[in-house]
């Protein structure tokens, strides 16, 4: 046996029975393997929870099986590698967990394995039990959903085992959205086993196919950075305690405690009802509208058939609605230029009134009007601000740090609201809006240029589908009142938004192996760069620092502005520049370059190229 540090555990060797399994599946709808087979959900209390299984297959299966079906292949020994606490902590991505779940990409070894996942799930259960302090008469329940990634099923099974092993009831939703998972902690429905005590969404947003991760919720909202660190520390300790007998026990527990519910039915019906209510309880308030959806092969394909069509809209021309975890058409990301080109083409080719695009797990979205004008980034924020300020005059709009000066003028001078520009990170923006309300400053909208948008009326959940419902509400109510039809009613709301002639984001990477770091961290080095830039700006009368700023160094000059900040997670200093012309943008870039050129570990090649254009 190879000298690998780790523990010996037993597992079911599925390879030897794959051919037999295929034959049995074809003949009887029967799988000879244990829940380690990733196409099979656990066999639950006499019912087979299997994606895509037909009623006929289930009936045939049930004649032959009344319990857990184990593989008849001989057990085989394998190694459960040692994973140090530091490796667990590296999986943290702000208020999420993200890692590599699929092998095959050079330089990206798998670190989100099934045993690691099982430990993380068990750690969440322990964290939840500590906070809920439930009495012994009631077991806690946790819902699990996933997006379309190819690793979703195996991670869902591993999460189920980890939760069940910790004594928690598990409810699987299958393909779902991040907003729906949070909603499941709020919904009151015995038929749908709601509300649950906690919820886990298996997703890595718009990242490549080989990545995956987790988002966690309670009825108080998404967990924060401190909670995620706590869970990962617990997971590291749990992982070390894994034994062969313990892992087998979690399989048995999962078989007895996992249920499956179609919760997306509840979630979509709530969205439909919200639009009908806004239009005066008309059954089909979107009748006559042609709206196309681009789901990017993520989890948002439901929106066309389950939301828009029941409301009366025509959805022909909608694209990439089928879940495909390889994302073959474009990155499911409303910030991505190719993705926005794809939905724009669909709108123009189909002569649609509106186009809607989602990211993979539907917590972000954007739109395109009938003329092909993109309603994302600053325009989407301006549009949502106009809608919210009609409903709540004078309210504060909280955004991330890279929003434009033109947006501030639009919100404050035209709409009569207040623009509170905060930090990057959707959780930062949402938490700041909640904080402002707690100290007496009314805020009803927290929104990022990325397309994350959360409203107070929707429990501060960043829900891309709900954001689009707010646009649909405007369309439906305008039509019902005879004000207008088509997307012009939306486009008119952002009339007067001043937009820059040039807007770029450049990424200045920090070489963590460079001797200039002198053994320090990239964060310390980045902070030194920012402090030096700030000192230089103070001595230049042509440049003015932003009077209120919460992140990095934001400076106005030459009719535009720039912001240099340190990335939340990576050894990178993103530089955003907006200006009326290329010439003015280059002047701003040259000022930054002059200030940071002495920092040898900082890769300024992208900035050099920009100023030499």
Features:
27 strands; 19% strand; alpha+beta; 6-stranded antiparallel sheet; 613 residues
Brief sketch in words of this structure:
With 613 residues, the protein is α+β, with helices and mostly antiparallel strands. The strands form six sheets. Strands 5, 6, 7, 8, 9, 10, 11 and 12 form an eight-stranded mixed β-sheet that branches. InterPro entries: A-D-PHexomutase_a/b/a-I, A-D-PHexomutase_a/b/a-I/II/III, A-D-PHexomutase_a/b/a-II, A-D-PHexomutase_a/b/a-III, A-D-PHexomutase_C_sf, Alpha-D-phosphohexomutase_SF, Phosphoglucosamine_mutase.
Number of helices: 19
Main beta sheet: 8 strands, mixed
Rg calculated over all Cα atoms: 26 Å
Shape type: globular
Describe the structure.
With 613 residues, this protein is an alpha+beta fold. The strands form 6 sheets. Strands 5, 6, 7, 8, 9, 10, 11 and 12 form an 8-stranded mixed sheet that branches. It has a 6-stranded antiparallel sheet with strand order 23-24-25-26-22-27. A hairpin with a 6-residue loop joins β14 (354-358) and β15. α5 (152-165) crosses α8 (244-257), α9 crosses α10 (302-308) and α9 runs parallel beside α15. The longest helix has 19 residues, at 114-132. The protein is globular and about 70 Å long. Mean pLDDT is 87; it is low at 1-78.
Write the layout of secondary structure elements.
Elements: E1 6-11, H1 18-28, E2 43-44, E3 47-48, H2 55-64, E4 76-81, H3 85-89, E5 92-93, E6 96-100, H4 114-132, E7 141-146, H5 152-165, E8 169-175, H6 178-183, E9 198-202, E10 211-218, E11 221-222, H7 225-240, H8 244-257, E12 258-260, H9 264-278, E13 291-294, H10 302-308, H11 337-349, E14 354-358, E15 365-369, E16 374-375, H12 377-391, E17 396-399, H13 405-414, E18 418-421, H14 426-438, E19 443-447, E20 453-455, E21 461-462, H15 464-480, H16 488-491, E22 502-510, H17 522-538, E23 544-545, E24 553-557, E25 560-564, E26 572-579, H18 582-596, E27 602-603, H19 605-611
Parallel strand pairs: 7-8, 7-9, 8-12, 13-14, 17-18, 17-19
Antiparallel strand pairs: 1-4, 2-3, 5-6, 6-10, 9-10, 10-11, 14-15, 15-16, 19-20, 20-21, 22-26, 22-27, 23-24, 24-25, 25-26
């Amino acid at each position: 046996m190879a000298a690998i540090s780790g523990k010996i555990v037993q597992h079911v060797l599925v390879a030897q029975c794959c051919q037999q399994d295929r034959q049995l599946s074809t003949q009887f709808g029967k799988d000879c393997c244990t829940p380690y087979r990733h196409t099979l959900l656990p066999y639950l209390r006499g019912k087979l929870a299997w994606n895509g299984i037909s009623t006929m297959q289930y009936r045939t299966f049930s004649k032959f099986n009344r319990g857990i079906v184990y593989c008849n292949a001989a057990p085989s020994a394998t190694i459960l590698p040692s994973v140090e606490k530091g490796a667990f902590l590296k999986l943290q991505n702000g208020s999420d967990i993200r890692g590599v779940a699929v092998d095959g990409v050079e330089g990206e070894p798998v670190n989100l394995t099934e045993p690691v996942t099982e430990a993380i799930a068990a750690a969440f259960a322990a964290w939840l039990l500590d906070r809920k302090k439930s009495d012994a008469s009631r077991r806690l329940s946790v819902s699990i959903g996933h997006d379309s990634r190819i690793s979703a099923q195996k991670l869902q099974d591993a999460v189920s085992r980890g939760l069940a092993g910790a004594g928690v009831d598990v409810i699987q939703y299958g393909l779902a959205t991040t907003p729906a998972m949070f909603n499941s902690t709020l919904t009151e429905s015995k038929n749908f086993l709601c509300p649950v005590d906690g919820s886990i969404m298996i997703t890595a947003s718009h990242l490549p196919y080989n990545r995956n991760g987790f988002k966690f919720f309670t009825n108080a909202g998404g967990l924060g950075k401190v909670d995620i660190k706590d869970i990962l520390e617990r997971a590291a300790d749990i992982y070390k305690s894994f034994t062969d007998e313990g892992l087998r026990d979690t399989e048995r527990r999962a078989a007895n405690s996992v249920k499956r519910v179609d919760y997306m039915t509840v979630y979509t019906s709530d969205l439909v009802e919200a639009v009908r209510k806004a239009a005066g309880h008309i059954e089909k308030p979107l009748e006559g509208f042609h709206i196309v959806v681009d789901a990017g092969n993520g989890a948002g394909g439901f929106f066309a058939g389950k939301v828009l069509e029941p409301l009366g809209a025509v959805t022909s021309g909608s694209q990439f609605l089928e879940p495909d975890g390889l994302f073959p058409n474009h990155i499911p990301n409303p910030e991505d230029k190719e993705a926005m080109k794809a939905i724009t083409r669909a709108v123009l080719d189909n002569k649609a009134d509106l186009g809607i695009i989602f990211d993979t797990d539907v917590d972000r979205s954007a739109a395109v009007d009938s003329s092909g004008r993109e309603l994302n980034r600053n325009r989407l924020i301006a549009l949502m601000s106009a809608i919210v300020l009609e409903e709540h005059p004078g309210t504060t709009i909280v955004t991330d740090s890279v929003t434009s000066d033109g947006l501030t003028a639009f919100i404050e001078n035209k709409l009569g609201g207040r623009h509170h520009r905060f930090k990057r990170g959707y959780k930062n923006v949402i938490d700041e809006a909640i904080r402002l309300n707690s100290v007496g400053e009314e805020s009803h909208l927290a929104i990022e240029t990325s397309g994350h948008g959360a409203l107070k009326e929707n429990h501060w959940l960043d829900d891309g589908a709900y954001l689009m419902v707010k646009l649909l509400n405007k369309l439906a109510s305008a039509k019902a009142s005879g004000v207008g039809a088509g997307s012009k009613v939306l486009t008119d709301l952002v009339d007067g938004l001043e937009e820059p002639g040039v807007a770029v984001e450049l990424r200045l990477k920090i070489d963590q192996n460079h001797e200039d770091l002198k053994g320090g961290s990239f964060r310390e080095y980045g902070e030194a760069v920012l402090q030096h830039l700030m000192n230089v700006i103070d001595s230049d009368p042509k440049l003015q620092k932003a009077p209120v700023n919460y992140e990095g160094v934001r400076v106005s000059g030459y009719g535009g502005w720039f912001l240099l900040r340190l990335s939340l997670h990576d050894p990178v200093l993103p530089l955003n520049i907006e200006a009326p012309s290329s010439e003015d943008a280059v002047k701003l870039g040259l000022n930054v370059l002059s200030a940071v050129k002495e920092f040898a570990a900082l890769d300024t090649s992208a900035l050099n190229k920009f100023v030499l254009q």
